[in-house]
What we know:
7-stranded mixed sheet, 0% helix, mainly beta, globular
Amino acid sequence: VQLVESGGDSVQAGKSLRHSCKVSGLSGHIDCFKWFRQAPGKVREAVAALYTGDGSTTYAEFVEGRATISSDNAKKVYLQMIDLEPEDTVKYYCAVRPMARCEGLDRPFWFTYWGQGTQVTVS
Length: 123
């Protein structure tokens, strides 16, 4: 399984960005995908989750209303962020736990496969 993120950039506050996670090596469509973020010196935290079995999504409170996670037939997973704030200056990571629902999978250690991360700087 391979995950490759793209979409990181340096933007001004108030702008939007869409991150992409290209997925390869997964054979099913009942996987839990999550976007995590990590700021320097801080723990990695979940931002949004998508269960491809039924399309259900969840979001962290700190991005509620500003983030949308979606999938393109499980070949790409997207994270759209709007109204970016300087606090959104973090590295975003795409992760997947195959053959699993997302409920209860809040910590990074639950996820088997990770992308390399994509950096966002908001000024």
